[in-house]
Design a protein that fits this description.
Elements: H1 4-41, E1 53-63, E2 69-82, E3 85-97, H2 100-113, E4 129-144, E5 148-164, H3 172-177, E6 179-192, E7 197-208, E8 213-223
């Protein structure tokens, strides 16, 4: 039989091994992780970032606080920052009416802050429109075939909004609707065409304060000479 001191030493050695084993595994794996991260970041390059195509699009847009309307935009393809990963700069605009439900909620909020001892005042805002000018920066993962290109993207946008209406122009209500806010957008789309001119179809969703929207846009893209090979996402 083992003595008490022998058993204690064995338990101590077991705890020591248990403590050092995870550390040894971590040290053996960390060089591989570092090499993988270095390999990933080494694919990113600013060398291919330059204007390469211009897109014009138009389509219906709807949101949680507005009625459906049309939106139009310009997109500038700024080249590939990594294989299959391209950068796009965008500018878009729409002007839409407040939905009846949104206008009713807005009137109710105003009623709650108005001092009305007799409780017989009414608030009627009438027609209210909301315009939105948006600047976008998108990153899109591109898969390109011979004549059809598909992409999936995510991006950030800055929204400049302006409210107007016969009953609110020049009032604090209009000031409350005028705002500058940020938004998060996602896109999925396709381009058809193997040469300079391409037909585009894109679905875009935007999450932002005040109003979130979804749109379906179609348009045309013109790709400048000498940029078609780089459009394949090789980064070369």
């Amino acid at each position: 039989m083992l003595s008490a001191s022998t058993r204690a030493a064995a338990r101590s050695d077991g705890r020591t091994v248990g403590l050092w084993l995870p550390l040894a595994v971590l040290l053996s794996v960390s060089p591989t992780v570092r090499l993988s991260a270095q390999g990933l970041f080494s694919q990113f390059s600013y060398d291919n970032l330059k204007p390469s195509a211009l897109q014009v699009d138009l389509g219906p847009v709807g949101g949680n606080n507005i009625r459906g309307t049309l939106t139009g935009g310009l997109r500038l393809d700024y080249g590939f920052i990594a294989p299959h990963l391209r950068v796009l700069l965008g500018l878009s605009y729409y002007k839409a009416d407040f939905s009846s439900a949104a206008r009713a909620r807005f009137e109710q909020r105003l009623r709650s802050v108005v001092i009305d001892p007799s409780a017989d005042d009414t608030i009627r805002l009438g027609r209210i429109t909301w315009s939105d000018v948006t600047g976008d920066l998108d990153l899109q993962y591109v898969l390109q075939g011979r004549a059809v290109t598909t992409y999936l993207g995510i991006g950030l946008g800055a929204h400049v909004r302006h409210g107007s209406g016969p009953a609110i122009n020049g009032t604090f209500v209009q000031d409350a609707l005028n705002s500058v806010t940020a938004g998060l957008n996602g896109t999925i789309g396709t381009e058809v065409g193997a040469k300079r001119w391409r037909f585009t179809l894109e679905a875009r969703g935007v999450l932002s304060s005040g109003v979130s929207t979804a749109s379906l846009r179609s348009g045309v893209m013109y790709r400048w000479a000498g940029t078609r090979d780089k459009g394949r996402g090789t980064g070369k």
